[in-house]
Structures are given as structure tokens and as C-alpha cells.
TrEMBL record:
Keywords: Acyltransferase, Endoplasmic reticulum, Membrane, Transferase, Transmembrane, Transmembrane helix. The keyword Transmembrane helix applies. Pfam families: MBOAT (PF03062). The chain crosses the membrane at residues 29-49, 61-84, 104-123, 381-399, 419-441, 447-468. It comes from Triplophysa rosa. Its main location: endoplasmic reticulum. This is Lysophospholipid acyltransferase 2. GO terms for molecular function: acyltransferase activity. It comes from the Eukaryota. It is found in: Endoplasmic reticulum membrane. It is a multi-pass membrane protein. Residues 484-506 are annotated as: Disordered. One of its GO terms (cellular component) is endoplasmic reticulum membrane. GO terms for biological process: lipid modification.
Amino acid sequence: MSWKKRECNSTLLFQFISKTCNRKHRKQVNFVACQLFALATAFWFRLYLHPSKTSPFIRHVVATLLGFYLALFCFGWYALHFLVQSGLAYGVMIFTGVEHMHRYCFVVTLGYLSFCQITRVYVFDYGMYSADFTGPMMVITQKITSLAFEIHDGLTKREEHLKPSQKYLAVRKMPSLLEYLSYNCNFMGILAGPTCSYNDYIAFIEGTCYESKPLESNGKENGKLKQSDPSPKRDVIQKLCTCALSLMVYLVIYTACPTERVINDSFMASNPFYIQVLYLYISMLSLRPKYYFVWTLADAIHNAAGFGFNGYNTDGTPKWDRISNLRILDIEFATSFKMFLDNWNIQTALWLKRVCYERCPYNPTAATFLLSAVWHGVYPGYYLTFITGIVMTMATRAVRHNVRQHFLNSATLKLIYDVITWFSTQIAICYTVVPFVLLAVGPSVKFYRSWYCCIHLICFLLVLVLPVKSRRSCTKQEEHQSSIQASEHNCLSSPDNNFNQKQKAT
């Protein structure tokens, strides 16, 4: 029997469930079924292929083969693009010097992803879920480019030239082909991610991530040691409950309040503006649980396999949030645009920071938002959202640097400031993300025109009236001041040091 027939038969197994759930694309049920299968497999992987029972080679092989099976089950032969993309990037790593490997790898990988996204949007039918293979490719792109930069840092730069985070992430040797494919296409993250560092993944495969570590409280060690290899059962159960609640909220509320209604002529004509604002907030509030469901389930799969351990809390309970992709409460109660972005799609934000923001010499904020737009795809709505996000970020940064300090003198003023910034942040996020949901230019422009582009105009005005120094210049100024203080300290302490050195020599 050919693979195509097997794929059709496997799809029919879930067709009844798909009709019962009233989902538009029946293969989305296959995706959820594969993730649940991956969850069960993760428990088996942790118990029966534990690092103490088997070799890293076996763990790499099993994780890779299971990943390819799930990819073929969900996407058919479109999953071969995962191998082509990974193979091209690995060839660049092998045959290109490490000095420029990261740049070439970045261009090749992102270019191939963009090519696939263009063909998916402008060649294939929008309704073909099987053509939506670019979702996993987006995560693979993050992994490939991150690894290329980590190898470049580890093999070409000195320790003193690396930042603390770069020292930890730096890879000191070229990975083998098996290690590389296992990192990119393992069964835990092949369908929905999230991205993780190569060193963390190798530590998980080899079992070194469970070594006893001092209990930390606010970054300080208290000397207590914890038992290695803690159980993730409690955290997995909590995350599965979060998934169930998120899915229920999305299916019940968002079905009744779709975002597309905000540009409906009859809706805009029959409701006052404050009702439209309230509806937009409820619609976006009920849309986010779809992402909560996917990312939290992916996090639970990694935890069930034993991946994601991040030390211990102050009460001695283990933390399993090393590769978590969101913090729901921090998102819903965010009081700034930056706070929302820092807690939403965390691993993608870290990837953008490591490969673009920290390395871009000119206007890193704008470059980071544009890279995020290119990485997401070719729909015009993505670019409208991220270009708006640039202006939003600059405006909120200006307000925070010029206004916030006036509200910190009393608890009452601080509470008022938090309430105002929470409300404005939620409205700004909803306003910014509408084109991301609508995708097309016409509906997006229609929405902004219905709001008279008021938030755009307010942000431009704030940027002009409340200028603020860039973060990079502030960081350089702080480093300059600290270097001056260090030099003064050395000058003051040098006579004593010279006397001590003479005393030792005598």
C-alpha cells in the first residue's frame, strides 16, 4: 500500500470526530491527534529510554524517526521540505567557513522558507491544509539559524567578547548529522515547536540537565541541593487542564465573536464606538486561547519527555518552564506593549533578540519587527501589524521613560498608572493585531479607517513630543560610567597593590 493511501485511510479515522467538532478542516483533528500521540510517546520515551538506560545515539534515532513519522502523517510528502531545508543549511555549515557561515545559513534558510510561503499562498488553494507545512518550517528556521550563530560564537569568538547569554549558548564543535536532524525534527517539537537552544537539547538527550543544582532564590544560591531527575507529572497535568480550558473558551466565545465582524458595515452602523471597542477586546481575548492551547500542549509534551527542567522554586518544587512559550497571566494583565511581547511567544522573541536585535548595528527595533514579519509569511496583514508594532513600541517606550516616574511616589498613583496602562495596552494590542487576523490589505485598511487611524496618530505624536534615548545608547553610557568608576577604583587601589607586590617579592 502506498503512503498516499495510508494517509487517506488515517485521515478517515478522524473524519467522524472532525464532523462532530464542526471544524472547517478535518486534518486539524489529525494535528491534535498527533500531538496527543506525541504526549503519550513522551512519557514512554522518558521512562523506557531514560539516559540511564540507553545511549544518546538510541535516543537521537528514536526521537528523529518518530518526528518524521508524525510529519508525514500530518503533511504527507510536503514534509520532505523539512529535510530539504535542513539539508541545505547543513551543507552550508559544512562547506562554508565558520567566519561567515551564520550569515549564509541565515539567508539560505529564511529564503527557502519564504519561497515555500509564497508558493503556499499564491500557488496552492488557501483551503488546502496539507499545504500548511510552513508552520513547522518556521520553527525549523529558528533552530537552524540559532545553531549557526551559536556555532559561529563558539568557534570564532573569544570568551571575553561574548555576552553571558552567548557564552552559555555557544557551541564548541560541529554537530553530527544525526544530532542535527534530531535537534531540528524530533517528535516533541516537529509540529508546533517551541524553539530551544542546541546545548539544552543535547543536555536533555545525554541526561546532564538533571544534575543536582543549588536551590536558587532571586538569583542567589542558598547551598541546598535537590534530588536529580524530578517528576514532571504535576506540571503536565496543570498544563493539560490549561489546554482544555483554553480550547473550550476559543470554541465557545470566539465562534460567537469572530474578528471579521469588526469590519461588517451593518455592525459598525448599528453600534456606537464604545461597543465596537468592547467587542474588539472580547474577540481578541477569545482568539488568544487558540495559541494558548497549541503552545501549552507542546510545552507539556516536552515536559512529559523530561525536557524543560529549570531548577527549583523557593518552596522546593521543580520548575518546568525552561522552554515555555507564554505566561498567560502576564499577557492578560500586561501594563505595557513590551511586557505583552515579552510574555507572548517567548522562544520566538528570544530568537529575534539573539539573531537580530543584539547584532543589528542600525535601528535594531525596526529590523527585529521586519524580520518577524518576513518570518511569519507573505500576507500583507502581517506587515501592517509589525510596522504598526514599531510605532507602538517607540511610543510606549517614550511614555514609560517620561511619565512613569511621576506615578511612583505613592501606591495610589501607581495603581492608577497601572490601570490606565493596562487598558491602553489591551486596546493597542487589539488595534495592532487586527490586520494579522484579517490578512488582506482591503479589510485591514477598512478597519483602520473606521477608527480614523487614531492610535497611529497618537503614537506618532507621542514619539515627536516625548523623545527618548535608544536603549543601546543608554547601555553604552552605563558601560562608560562603570568603566570610569572601575578605572578610578584601580587608580585608588594601585599604591596598595604595588606595596603588596613588593612585599611579596621581598
